[in-house]
Specification:
about 240 residues; alpha+beta; about 30% strand
Length: about 240
């Protein structure tokens, strides 16, 4: 026998269908909670639970003291990346690729120096762009890669946008990674990042900073990646090799 949906999920599905049908246009305000409760014969508790589902799915935007806005007719597609070992954390799946928008030689200012953990005024080659999925041509992240200037020529390699930069450096320059560190935190998208991702400035994102060190314990690459809220799942599962 089919399992009956909870009332809040059934209501959420109904509201999603109305939005998809264009009954409430993108950019318009939803009716008030009182109006929705009366129209769909639902309690305020059930309605608010349903609205949370719509918000999580990226259909509406709610802010205290303001009308609820319709921001999309279709659910957000989430990109899930899973890891089975620490090495996987350094790479993206092979069904993604990078589109370079900026390539330039730079010297680190105070802000970049703090973000990268490298000396202010030091010279780097900056590659900025977005990462997409092959199957959907969907932007999943904004990424900025900083490598030592002597590695800049690898950006002209045919496989450059398909392969992780640290892998290219290892292969082309016979350099081996001694260790890597990964920082993960939440932050608002800066203006340039928001523009790449078609978001408003300071939109919530998951930020991942990866730093790669050579056998002399010197940083030779740093990547700074912004993933929009609700569009990326960072999933890890590790199993012990010994029985407990």
């Amino acid at each position: 026998m089919a399992t009956q949906l909870p009332l809040y999920q059934s209501l959420a599905n109904t509201l999603e269908q109305h939005i998809f049908n264009g009954d409430w246009a993108v950019g318009s305000a939803l009716p008030s909670e009182a109006d929705l409760s009366n129209r769909f014969q639902a309690s305020r508790h059930t309605l608010r639970h349903a609205l949370r589902i719509l918000e999580t799915n990226g259909l509406i935007f709610r802010r205290q003291g303001a009308p609820t806005q319709v921001i999309s007719r279709q659910k957000l597609r989430k990109f899930t990346q899973s890891f089975n070992s620490p090495v996987d954390i350094l790479s993206y799946p092979r069904n993604t690729y990078r589109v370079n928008l900026v390539e330039e030689y730079i010297e680190l200012n105070a802000a970049l120096s703090q973000t990268l953990g490298c000396a202010m005024g030091s010279s780097w080659y900056h590659i900025g762009g977005v990462r997409k999925r092959h199957d959907a041509n969907e932007i999943i992240a904004s990424t900025d890669i900083y490598i030592l200037p002597q590695f800049a020529s690898l950006s002209s390699d045919p496989e450059h946008t398909q392969v992780m930069v640290f892998e290219q450096i290892e292969k082309k320059y016979d350099l081996k990674i001694n260790r890597a560190s990964v920082d993960v935190y939440a932050a608002g998208a800066p203006a340039e990042v928001a523009q790449r991702l078609s978001l408003e400035t300071n939109h919530p994102c998951l930020v991942i900073i990866r730093r790669y060190f050579d056998d002399q314990d010197r940083i030779f690459e740093v990547t700074v990646t912004y993933h929009p809220q609700e569009k990326y799942v960072y999933s890890m599962e590790f199993k012990t090799s010994a029985e407990i």
